[in-house]
Amino acid sequence: MSKVIMIQGTMSNAGKSLLAAGLCRIFKQDGYRVAPFKSQNMALNSFITKDGFEMGRAQVVQARAAGIEPSVYMNPILLKPVSDMGSQVIVNGKPVSNMPARKYFAYKKQLIPDIIHAFKKLEEQADIIVIEGAGSPAEINLKADDIVNMGLAKLVGAPVLLAGDIDRGGVFAQLLGTLMLLEPDEKELVKGLIINKFRGDKTILAPGIVMLEERGHVPVAGVIPYMKVAIEEEDSLSEKLEQSQKGLIDLAVIRLPRMSNYTDFDVFEQLSGVSVRYVHNVRELETPDCIFLPGSKNTVGDLLWMRQSGIEAAVKKLSKTTPVIGICGGFQMLGESIADPFGIEQGMDAPGMGLLPIQTTLTKEKTRLQVTGTIDHLSGVWSCLNGSPYEGYEIHMGKSTAVNASSSKEKKVGQSPKQPSSDLPTVVCSENGMVCGSYVHGLFDEGDLAWKLVKMLADKKNVTLEALQSGFDYKKFQESQYDLLADTIRQHMDMDFVYRILREAKI
Protein backbone atom coordinates (compact mmCIF):
# COMPACT_ATOMS: atom_id res chain seq x y z
CA MET A 1 0.00 0.00 0.00
CA SER A 2 1.12 3.53 -0.79
CA LYS A 3 2.35 5.98 1.79
CA VAL A 4 0.10 9.04 1.95
CA ILE A 5 0.52 12.70 2.88
CA MET A 6 -2.06 15.46 2.67
CA ILE A 7 -1.81 19.23 2.24
CA GLN A 8 -4.71 21.19 3.69
CA GLY A 9 -5.07 24.95 3.97
CA THR A 10 -6.62 27.46 6.29
CA MET A 11 -8.49 28.98 3.33
CA SER A 12 -8.74 28.96 -0.43
CA ASN A 13 -5.62 30.27 -2.18
CA ALA A 14 -3.34 29.35 0.72
CA GLY A 15 -1.07 27.66 -1.82
CA LYS A 16 -2.12 24.03 -1.36
CA SER A 17 -1.95 23.05 -5.03
CA LEU A 18 1.54 24.51 -5.46
CA LEU A 19 2.85 22.88 -2.28
CA ALA A 20 1.40 19.54 -3.39
CA ALA A 21 3.03 19.91 -6.80
CA GLY A 22 6.35 20.69 -5.13
CA LEU A 23 6.17 17.59 -2.93
CA CYS A 24 5.30 15.49 -6.00
CA ARG A 25 8.44 16.76 -7.69
CA ILE A 26 10.63 16.20 -4.64
CA PHE A 27 9.45 12.61 -4.17
CA LYS A 28 9.99 11.98 -7.89
CA GLN A 29 13.51 13.39 -7.67
CA ASP A 30 14.16 11.12 -4.69
CA GLY A 31 13.30 8.06 -6.77
CA TYR A 32 9.75 7.32 -5.68
CA ARG A 33 6.72 6.65 -7.84
CA VAL A 34 4.36 9.42 -6.81
CA ALA A 35 0.81 10.42 -7.77
CA PRO A 36 -1.39 13.38 -6.80
CA PHE A 37 -4.98 13.06 -5.59
CA LYS A 38 -7.88 15.39 -4.88
CA SER A 39 -11.20 13.72 -4.21
CA GLN A 40 -13.34 16.73 -5.09
CA ASN A 41 -12.28 19.75 -7.08
CA MET A 42 -14.32 22.85 -7.87
CA ALA A 43 -12.88 24.70 -10.85
CA LEU A 44 -13.70 25.94 -14.31
CA ASN A 45 -10.21 25.01 -15.48
CA SER A 46 -10.33 21.40 -16.61
CA PHE A 47 -8.39 19.00 -18.80
CA ILE A 48 -9.13 15.98 -20.95
CA THR A 49 -7.05 12.85 -20.41
CA LYS A 50 -5.81 10.62 -23.22
CA ASP A 51 -8.75 8.28 -22.67
CA GLY A 52 -11.26 11.13 -22.92
CA PHE A 53 -12.08 11.82 -19.27
CA GLU A 54 -12.37 15.26 -17.68
CA MET A 55 -10.43 16.30 -14.58
CA GLY A 56 -9.23 19.44 -12.80
CA ARG A 57 -6.08 21.08 -14.11
CA ALA A 58 -4.51 21.39 -10.65
CA GLN A 59 -4.00 17.62 -10.55
CA VAL A 60 -2.73 17.70 -14.13
CA VAL A 61 -0.02 20.13 -13.04
CA GLN A 62 0.83 17.90 -10.08
CA ALA A 63 0.95 14.82 -12.31
CA ARG A 64 3.39 16.57 -14.63
CA ALA A 65 5.48 17.57 -11.63
CA ALA A 66 5.48 13.88 -10.68
CA GLY A 67 6.51 12.96 -14.22
CA ILE A 68 3.45 10.82 -14.95
CA GLU A 69 0.47 10.92 -17.30
CA PRO A 70 -2.63 12.62 -15.83
CA SER A 71 -5.40 10.19 -14.91
CA VAL A 72 -9.00 10.79 -13.92
CA TYR A 73 -8.31 8.67 -10.81
CA MET A 74 -6.37 11.69 -9.52
CA ASN A 75 -9.58 13.74 -9.39
CA PRO A 76 -12.71 11.55 -9.34
CA ILE A 77 -15.15 14.41 -8.63
CA LEU A 78 -15.06 17.74 -10.46
CA LEU A 79 -17.59 20.52 -9.90
CA LYS A 80 -17.84 23.17 -12.61
CA PRO A 81 -19.95 26.15 -11.47
CA VAL A 82 -22.66 27.13 -13.96
CA SER A 83 -24.19 29.76 -11.66
CA ASP A 84 -23.76 31.21 -8.18
CA MET A 85 -26.03 28.46 -6.83
CA GLY A 86 -25.13 25.32 -8.78
CA SER A 87 -22.55 23.32 -10.68
CA GLN A 88 -22.15 20.66 -13.32
CA VAL A 89 -21.17 17.51 -11.43
CA ILE A 90 -18.54 15.36 -13.16
CA VAL A 91 -17.84 11.92 -11.69
CA ASN A 92 -15.05 9.70 -12.96
CA GLY A 93 -14.48 12.10 -15.82
CA LYS A 94 -18.06 12.16 -17.12
CA PRO A 95 -20.86 14.68 -16.51
CA VAL A 96 -23.63 13.37 -14.26
CA SER A 97 -25.95 16.37 -14.14
CA ASN A 98 -26.24 20.00 -13.14
CA MET A 99 -27.12 20.31 -9.46
CA PRO A 100 -27.94 23.20 -7.15
CA ALA A 101 -25.63 23.35 -4.15
CA ARG A 102 -28.17 22.00 -1.68
CA LYS A 103 -28.95 18.98 -3.84
CA TYR A 104 -25.26 18.19 -4.30
CA PHE A 105 -24.55 18.39 -0.55
CA ALA A 106 -27.28 15.83 0.02
CA TYR A 107 -25.92 13.63 -2.78
CA LYS A 108 -22.15 13.75 -2.40
CA LYS A 109 -21.74 11.04 0.26
CA GLN A 110 -23.01 8.58 -2.33
CA LEU A 111 -19.75 9.29 -4.18
CA ILE A 112 -17.49 7.89 -1.43
CA PRO A 113 -17.22 4.49 -3.21
CA ASP A 114 -16.02 6.32 -6.33
CA ILE A 115 -13.43 8.17 -4.26
CA ILE A 116 -12.18 4.97 -2.64
CA HIS A 117 -12.06 3.16 -5.98
CA ALA A 118 -9.98 5.96 -7.56
CA PHE A 119 -7.64 6.09 -4.58
CA LYS A 120 -7.05 2.34 -4.65
CA LYS A 121 -6.28 2.53 -8.37
CA LEU A 122 -3.55 5.06 -7.63
CA GLU A 123 -2.20 2.82 -4.86
CA GLU A 124 -1.54 0.15 -7.49
CA GLN A 125 0.96 2.40 -9.25
CA ALA A 126 2.40 4.79 -6.65
CA ASP A 127 4.75 4.51 -3.69
CA ILE A 128 3.54 7.88 -2.34
CA ILE A 129 0.24 9.66 -2.89
CA VAL A 130 0.16 13.41 -2.29
CA ILE A 131 -3.38 14.54 -1.47
CA GLU A 132 -4.65 18.08 -1.77
CA GLY A 133 -7.57 19.32 0.31
CA ALA A 134 -10.03 22.04 -0.65
CA GLY A 135 -10.77 25.37 1.00
CA SER A 136 -10.55 24.94 4.77
CA PRO A 137 -11.13 21.91 7.02
CA ALA A 138 -12.70 24.24 9.62
CA GLU A 139 -15.88 25.07 7.69
CA ILE A 140 -18.06 23.98 10.61
CA ASN A 141 -21.28 24.11 8.56
CA LEU A 142 -19.88 21.58 6.06
CA LYS A 143 -17.76 19.26 8.21
CA ALA A 144 -20.42 16.62 8.85
CA ASP A 145 -20.49 15.58 5.19
CA ASP A 146 -16.87 16.32 4.30
CA ILE A 147 -15.28 14.14 1.61
CA VAL A 148 -12.28 16.28 0.66
CA ASN A 149 -10.53 17.48 3.85
CA MET A 150 -10.56 15.74 7.24
CA GLY A 151 -13.27 13.35 6.13
CA LEU A 152 -10.93 12.07 3.44
CA ALA A 153 -7.86 12.16 5.70
CA LYS A 154 -9.62 9.87 8.17
CA LEU A 155 -10.86 7.64 5.37
CA VAL A 156 -7.35 6.93 4.04
CA GLY A 157 -5.28 7.52 7.19
CA ALA A 158 -3.38 10.51 5.81
CA PRO A 159 -1.12 12.67 8.01
CA VAL A 160 -1.86 16.34 7.33
CA LEU A 161 0.34 19.37 6.80
CA LEU A 162 -1.77 22.49 7.39
CA ALA A 163 -0.72 25.58 5.39
CA GLY A 164 -1.56 29.19 6.21
CA ASP A 165 -1.08 32.21 3.94
CA ILE A 166 0.99 34.87 5.70
CA ASP A 167 0.84 37.15 2.65
CA ARG A 168 -2.82 37.89 3.41
CA GLY A 169 -2.04 38.62 7.05
CA GLY A 170 -3.21 36.97 10.26
CA VAL A 171 -1.44 33.68 9.65
CA PHE A 172 -1.18 32.83 13.37
CA ALA A 173 -4.92 33.33 13.81
CA GLN A 174 -5.53 31.29 10.66
CA LEU A 175 -3.56 28.31 11.89
CA LEU A 176 -4.56 28.41 15.56
CA GLY A 177 -8.21 29.13 14.71
CA THR A 178 -8.32 26.19 12.34
CA LEU A 179 -6.79 23.85 14.92
CA MET A 180 -9.27 25.09 17.53
CA LEU A 181 -12.26 24.27 15.30
CA LEU A 182 -11.11 20.71 14.56
CA GLU A 183 -12.42 17.72 16.47
CA PRO A 184 -9.81 15.92 18.65
CA ASP A 185 -9.44 13.02 16.18
CA GLU A 186 -9.05 15.50 13.32
CA LYS A 187 -6.45 17.59 15.12
CA GLU A 188 -4.50 14.42 15.84
CA LEU A 189 -4.04 13.99 12.08
CA VAL A 190 -2.36 17.41 11.76
CA LYS A 191 1.31 16.57 12.10
CA GLY A 192 2.85 19.85 10.95
CA LEU A 193 2.11 23.47 10.12
CA ILE A 194 3.36 25.45 7.12
CA ILE A 195 3.62 29.23 6.98
CA ASN A 196 3.35 29.91 3.27
CA LYS A 197 4.13 32.92 1.03
CA PHE A 198 6.52 34.59 3.50
CA ARG A 199 8.38 37.74 2.51
CA GLY A 200 11.11 39.34 4.62
CA ASP A 201 13.46 38.43 7.45
CA LYS A 202 12.58 35.05 8.96
CA THR A 203 14.31 35.90 12.26
CA ILE A 204 11.60 38.49 12.95
CA LEU A 205 9.05 35.67 12.62
CA ALA A 206 10.83 33.40 15.11
CA PRO A 207 9.03 34.52 18.33
CA GLY A 208 5.67 34.01 16.65
CA ILE A 209 6.63 30.51 15.58
CA VAL A 210 7.54 29.61 19.15
CA MET A 211 4.17 30.85 20.43
CA LEU A 212 2.36 29.11 17.56
CA GLU A 213 3.92 25.77 18.46
CA GLU A 214 3.30 26.27 22.18
CA ARG A 215 -0.39 27.10 21.74
CA GLY A 216 -1.15 24.79 18.85
CA HIS A 217 0.93 21.83 20.09
CA VAL A 218 1.89 21.12 16.46
CA PRO A 219 5.39 21.77 15.07
CA VAL A 220 6.05 24.17 12.21
CA ALA A 221 7.43 22.08 9.37
CA GLY A 222 8.43 24.97 7.16
CA VAL A 223 8.29 28.66 6.37
CA ILE A 224 8.01 28.80 2.60
CA PRO A 225 8.89 32.06 0.87
CA TYR A 226 6.64 33.77 -1.64
CA MET A 227 7.67 31.89 -4.76
CA LYS A 228 7.82 33.49 -8.17
CA VAL A 229 7.46 30.31 -10.17
CA ALA A 230 5.49 30.17 -13.40
CA ILE A 231 3.28 27.24 -12.41
CA GLU A 232 -0.47 27.53 -12.61
CA GLU A 233 -2.38 27.31 -9.36
CA GLU A 234 -6.03 26.39 -8.97
CA ASP A 235 -6.91 29.74 -7.43
CA SER A 236 -4.31 31.88 -9.21
CA LEU A 237 -6.70 33.89 -11.38
CA SER A 238 -7.08 36.62 -8.75
CA GLU A 239 -3.40 37.52 -9.11
CA LYS A 240 -3.63 37.56 -12.89
CA LEU A 241 -6.49 40.05 -12.73
CA GLU A 242 -4.20 42.57 -11.06
CA GLN A 243 -2.01 42.82 -14.17
CA SER A 244 -2.61 46.23 -15.77
CA GLN A 245 0.81 47.28 -17.01
CA LYS A 246 1.22 47.02 -20.76
CA GLY A 247 4.21 45.39 -22.43
CA LEU A 248 5.54 46.20 -25.87
CA ILE A 249 3.06 43.58 -27.04
CA ASP A 250 -0.27 44.02 -25.24
CA LEU A 251 -2.61 41.01 -25.18
CA ALA A 252 -6.13 41.48 -23.80
CA VAL A 253 -8.23 38.56 -22.55
CA ILE A 254 -11.93 39.33 -22.14
CA ARG A 255 -12.73 38.48 -18.53
CA LEU A 256 -16.04 36.71 -18.99
CA PRO A 257 -18.18 36.20 -15.85
CA ARG A 258 -17.96 32.40 -16.27
CA MET A 259 -14.56 32.27 -17.93
CA SER A 260 -12.95 28.82 -18.08
CA ASN A 261 -9.53 27.47 -19.01
CA TYR A 262 -7.78 30.83 -18.83
CA THR A 263 -4.57 28.80 -18.60
CA ASP A 264 -4.68 28.74 -22.42
CA PHE A 265 -2.89 32.10 -22.25
CA ASP A 266 -0.28 31.33 -19.58
CA VAL A 267 2.40 30.64 -22.18
CA PHE A 268 2.32 34.27 -23.35
CA GLU A 269 3.10 35.52 -19.85
CA GLN A 270 6.53 33.91 -20.11
CA LEU A 271 7.59 35.84 -23.21
CA SER A 272 9.68 38.89 -22.41
CA GLY A 273 8.04 42.16 -23.38
CA VAL A 274 4.56 40.62 -23.60
CA SER A 275 1.72 41.51 -21.21
CA VAL A 276 -1.52 39.60 -20.68
CA ARG A 277 -4.34 41.74 -19.28
CA TYR A 278 -7.75 40.44 -18.17
CA VAL A 279 -10.32 43.12 -18.95
CA HIS A 280 -13.99 43.29 -17.99
CA ASN A 281 -15.14 46.65 -19.38
CA VAL A 282 -14.66 48.81 -22.45
CA ARG A 283 -12.53 51.33 -20.59
CA GLU A 284 -9.96 48.68 -19.66
CA LEU A 285 -9.90 47.20 -23.17
CA GLU A 286 -8.42 50.24 -24.91
CA THR A 287 -6.46 49.26 -28.08
CA PRO A 288 -4.49 46.05 -27.46
CA ASP A 289 -2.35 44.31 -30.06
CA CYS A 290 -4.48 41.16 -29.92
CA ILE A 291 -7.76 40.20 -28.25
CA PHE A 292 -8.54 36.74 -26.84
CA LEU A 293 -12.04 35.48 -26.15
CA PRO A 294 -11.58 32.58 -23.69
CA GLY A 295 -13.70 29.55 -22.92
CA SER A 296 -16.92 29.87 -20.94
CA LYS A 297 -19.11 27.58 -18.84
CA ASN A 298 -22.13 29.55 -20.03
CA THR A 299 -21.42 30.72 -23.55
CA VAL A 300 -24.81 32.29 -24.29
CA GLY A 301 -24.96 34.04 -20.91
CA ASP A 302 -21.46 35.44 -21.28
CA LEU A 303 -22.16 36.53 -24.86
CA LEU A 304 -25.21 38.45 -23.62
CA TRP A 305 -23.03 40.02 -20.90
CA MET A 306 -20.57 41.17 -23.57
CA ARG A 307 -23.44 42.60 -25.55
CA GLN A 308 -24.94 44.49 -22.61
CA SER A 309 -21.58 45.81 -21.36
CA GLY A 310 -20.60 47.22 -24.75
CA ILE A 311 -17.54 44.98 -25.03
CA GLU A 312 -18.99 43.12 -28.01
CA ALA A 313 -19.36 46.35 -30.00
CA ALA A 314 -15.83 47.43 -29.05
CA VAL A 315 -14.31 44.09 -30.07
CA LYS A 316 -16.18 44.09 -33.39
CA LYS A 317 -14.92 47.60 -34.15
CA LEU A 318 -11.33 46.72 -33.22
CA SER A 319 -11.46 43.47 -35.24
CA LYS A 320 -11.14 45.44 -38.48
CA THR A 321 -7.50 46.18 -37.62
CA THR A 322 -6.72 44.16 -34.47
CA PRO A 323 -6.30 40.37 -34.49
CA VAL A 324 -9.02 38.58 -32.49
CA ILE A 325 -8.99 34.90 -31.54
CA GLY A 326 -11.61 32.87 -29.70
CA ILE A 327 -11.01 29.56 -27.94
CA CYS A 328 -13.88 27.10 -27.31
CA GLY A 329 -16.77 29.20 -25.95
CA GLY A 330 -15.09 32.32 -27.30
CA PHE A 331 -14.91 30.59 -30.70
CA GLN A 332 -18.65 29.88 -30.56
CA MET A 333 -19.39 33.52 -29.68
CA LEU A 334 -17.53 34.77 -32.76
CA GLY A 335 -19.88 32.86 -35.08
CA GLU A 336 -23.19 33.80 -36.67
CA SER A 337 -25.50 32.16 -34.14
CA ILE A 338 -25.76 29.92 -31.07
CA ALA A 339 -28.83 27.69 -30.68
CA ASP A 340 -29.79 26.06 -27.38
CA PRO A 341 -32.68 23.72 -28.27
CA PHE A 342 -32.22 21.49 -25.20
CA GLY A 343 -31.90 24.25 -22.60
CA ILE A 344 -28.26 23.39 -21.87
CA GLU A 345 -27.44 26.95 -20.78
CA GLN A 346 -29.91 29.82 -21.04
CA GLY A 347 -32.60 27.88 -22.89
CA MET A 348 -32.61 30.47 -25.65
CA ASP A 349 -31.02 31.07 -29.03
CA ALA A 350 -28.78 34.07 -29.57
CA PRO A 351 -27.16 35.77 -32.54
CA GLY A 352 -23.38 35.58 -32.43
CA MET A 353 -20.89 38.34 -33.07
CA GLY A 354 -20.89 37.57 -36.79
CA LEU A 355 -17.10 37.61 -37.15
CA LEU A 356 -16.65 33.96 -38.19
CA PRO A 357 -18.68 31.94 -40.74
CA ILE A 358 -19.90 29.29 -38.30
CA GLN A 359 -23.10 28.44 -36.46
CA THR A 360 -23.28 26.49 -33.20
CA THR A 361 -25.91 24.23 -31.67
CA LEU A 362 -25.49 23.35 -27.99
CA THR A 363 -25.89 19.61 -27.49
CA LYS A 364 -26.62 17.27 -24.58
CA GLU A 365 -23.41 15.31 -25.06
CA LYS A 366 -20.08 16.88 -24.10
CA THR A 367 -17.16 16.52 -26.51
CA ARG A 368 -14.09 15.34 -24.58
CA LEU A 369 -10.91 14.32 -26.40
CA GLN A 370 -7.27 15.10 -27.02
CA VAL A 371 -6.32 16.25 -30.50
CA THR A 372 -3.16 16.65 -32.55
CA GLY A 373 -2.48 17.86 -36.07
CA THR A 374 -0.94 20.56 -38.21
CA ILE A 375 -2.33 24.03 -38.89
CA ASP A 376 -2.52 25.04 -42.53
CA HIS A 377 -4.29 27.27 -45.08
CA LEU A 378 -4.89 30.22 -42.75
CA SER A 379 -5.01 33.65 -44.34
CA GLY A 380 -4.24 37.22 -43.34
CA VAL A 381 -2.31 37.83 -40.14
CA TRP A 382 -2.90 34.23 -39.07
CA SER A 383 -0.91 32.79 -41.99
CA CYS A 384 2.12 32.97 -39.67
CA LEU A 385 0.78 29.81 -37.97
CA ASN A 386 0.62 27.71 -41.13
CA GLY A 387 2.66 24.53 -41.02
CA SER A 388 2.80 24.47 -37.22
CA PRO A 389 2.02 21.23 -35.37
CA TYR A 390 -0.40 21.56 -32.48
CA GLU A 391 -1.47 19.42 -29.54
CA GLY A 392 -4.31 20.07 -27.13
CA TYR A 393 -7.76 18.98 -26.07
CA GLU A 394 -11.39 19.74 -26.79
CA ILE A 395 -14.06 20.05 -24.12
CA HIS A 396 -17.34 21.65 -25.09
CA MET A 397 -21.11 21.31 -25.07
CA GLY A 398 -22.03 22.01 -28.67
CA LYS A 399 -21.18 21.40 -32.28
CA SER A 400 -20.24 24.08 -34.79
CA THR A 401 -20.73 23.89 -38.54
CA ALA A 402 -19.80 26.19 -41.38
CA VAL A 403 -22.42 28.62 -42.57
CA ASN A 404 -21.14 27.85 -46.08
CA ALA A 405 -20.27 24.14 -45.90
CA SER A 406 -18.73 23.93 -49.36
CA SER A 407 -16.20 26.69 -48.74
CA SER A 408 -15.39 25.19 -45.36
CA LYS A 409 -14.56 21.82 -46.89
CA GLU A 410 -12.06 23.47 -49.18
CA LYS A 411 -10.28 24.93 -46.16
CA LYS A 412 -10.36 21.78 -44.00
CA VAL A 413 -6.97 21.45 -42.29
CA GLY A 414 -5.10 19.78 -39.47
CA GLN A 415 -7.79 17.32 -38.46
CA SER A 416 -6.81 14.69 -35.93
CA PRO A 417 -8.12 11.13 -36.43
CA LYS A 418 -9.67 11.50 -32.97
CA GLN A 419 -11.48 14.73 -33.77
CA PRO A 420 -15.29 14.67 -34.13
CA SER A 421 -16.48 14.51 -37.73
CA SER A 422 -16.82 18.11 -38.83
CA ASP A 423 -16.44 20.21 -41.91
CA LEU A 424 -14.61 22.82 -39.87
CA PRO A 425 -10.86 23.24 -39.85
CA THR A 426 -8.98 23.12 -36.57
CA VAL A 427 -8.59 26.88 -36.75
CA VAL A 428 -11.32 28.81 -38.57
CA CYS A 429 -10.30 32.11 -40.16
CA SER A 430 -12.47 35.08 -41.15
CA GLU A 431 -12.62 36.38 -44.69
CA ASN A 432 -10.64 39.52 -43.82
CA GLY A 433 -7.93 37.43 -42.13
CA MET A 434 -8.12 39.32 -38.80
CA VAL A 435 -10.31 36.95 -36.75
CA CYS A 436 -9.88 33.25 -36.04
CA GLY A 437 -11.13 30.66 -33.60
CA SER A 438 -10.62 27.10 -32.46
CA TYR A 439 -12.05 24.51 -30.09
CA VAL A 440 -8.54 23.41 -29.05
CA HIS A 441 -7.44 24.27 -25.52
CA GLY A 442 -3.69 24.48 -25.05
CA LEU A 443 -3.29 25.34 -28.72
CA PHE A 444 -0.35 27.67 -28.11
CA ASP A 445 1.46 25.46 -25.57
CA GLU A 446 3.06 23.28 -28.22
CA GLY A 447 6.31 24.10 -29.99
CA ASP A 448 6.75 27.68 -31.10
CA LEU A 449 3.13 28.59 -31.87
CA ALA A 450 3.02 31.29 -29.19
CA TRP A 451 6.35 32.65 -30.39
CA LYS A 452 5.09 32.82 -33.99
CA LEU A 453 1.97 34.69 -32.95
CA VAL A 454 3.90 37.23 -30.87
CA LYS A 455 6.46 37.69 -33.63
CA MET A 456 3.65 38.45 -36.08
CA LEU A 457 2.24 41.05 -33.67
CA ALA A 458 5.69 42.60 -33.16
CA ASP A 459 6.31 42.80 -36.91
CA LYS A 460 2.85 44.31 -37.41
CA LYS A 461 3.67 46.92 -34.77
CA ASN A 462 7.24 47.36 -36.05
CA VAL A 463 8.88 46.63 -32.70
CA THR A 464 11.64 44.19 -31.74
CA LEU A 465 11.51 41.95 -28.70
CA GLU A 466 14.40 40.11 -27.10
CA ALA A 467 12.24 37.02 -26.80
CA LEU A 468 11.85 36.89 -30.57
CA GLN A 469 15.50 36.21 -31.29
CA SER A 470 14.83 32.50 -30.92
CA GLY A 471 11.94 30.08 -30.36
CA PHE A 472 10.52 29.40 -26.91
CA ASP A 473 9.89 25.85 -25.68
CA TYR A 474 7.09 26.20 -23.13
CA LYS A 475 7.13 22.58 -22.01
CA LYS A 476 10.87 22.65 -21.31
CA PHE A 477 10.34 25.91 -19.42
CA GLN A 478 7.59 24.28 -17.32
CA GLU A 479 9.94 21.44 -16.37
CA SER A 480 12.51 23.96 -15.15
CA GLN A 481 9.82 25.62 -13.02
CA TYR A 482 8.89 22.32 -11.35
CA ASP A 483 12.54 21.86 -10.42
CA LEU A 484 12.75 25.42 -9.10
CA LEU A 485 9.64 24.80 -7.01
CA ALA A 486 11.10 21.59 -5.57
CA ASP A 487 14.46 23.25 -4.81
CA THR A 488 12.74 26.10 -2.95
CA ILE A 489 10.57 23.80 -0.85
CA ARG A 490 13.55 21.56 -0.02
CA GLN A 491 15.44 24.59 1.22
CA HIS A 492 12.65 25.86 3.48
CA MET A 493 10.76 22.70 4.51
CA ASP A 494 12.06 20.12 6.97
CA MET A 495 12.00 17.18 4.56
CA ASP A 496 13.42 14.81 7.19
CA PHE A 497 10.32 15.61 9.23
CA VAL A 498 8.08 15.04 6.20
CA TYR A 499 9.62 11.63 5.51
CA ARG A 500 9.29 10.72 9.19
CA ILE A 501 5.55 11.40 9.30
CA LEU A 502 5.22 9.39 6.08
CA ARG A 503 6.94 6.42 7.71
CA GLU A 504 4.91 6.72 10.92
CA ALA A 505 1.54 7.13 9.21
CA LYS A 506 -1.05 4.52 10.10
CA ILE A 507 -2.28 2.70 7.00
UniProtKB/TrEMBL annotation:
Membrane-spanning segments: none
Start and end residues of each stretch annotated as Disordered: 404-424
Pathway noted in the entry: Cofactor biosynthesis; adenosylcobalamin biosynthesis
UniProt KW Lipid metabolism keyword: no
InterPro entries: Class_I_gatase-like (IPR029062), CobQ/CobB/MinD/ParA_Nub-bd_dom (IPR002586), CobQ_GATase1 (IPR033949), CobQ_N (IPR047045), CobQ_synth (IPR004459), GATase_3 (IPR011698), P-loop_NTPase (IPR027417)
Ranges of residues in domain CobB/CobQ-like glutamine amidotransferase: 251-447
GO biological process: one example: cobalamin biosynthetic process
Annotated catalytic residues: 328 (nucleophile), 441
Molecular functions (GO terms): ABC-type vitamin B12 transporter activity; catalytic activity
Domain CobQ/CobB/MinD/ParA nucleotide binding: 5-229
Entries under SUPFAM superfamilies matching the protein: Class I glutamine amidotransferase-like, P-loop containing nucleoside triphosphate hydrolases
Keyword annotations: Cobalamin biosynthesis, Glutamine amidotransferase
PANTHER family, sorted: COBYRIC ACID SYNTHASE, DETHIOBIOTIN SYNTHETASE
Cited function: Catalyzes amidations at positions B, D, E, and G on adenosylcobyrinic A,C-diamide. NH(2) groups are provided by glutamine, and one molecule of ATP is hydrogenolyzed for each amidation.
Entry-linked NCBIfam families: cobQ, PRK00784.1
Family indicated by similarity: Belongs to the CobB/CobQ family. CobQ subfamily.
Protein name as catalogued: Cobyric acid synthase
Organism for this UniProt entry: Anthropogastromicrobium aceti
GN (gene name): cobQ
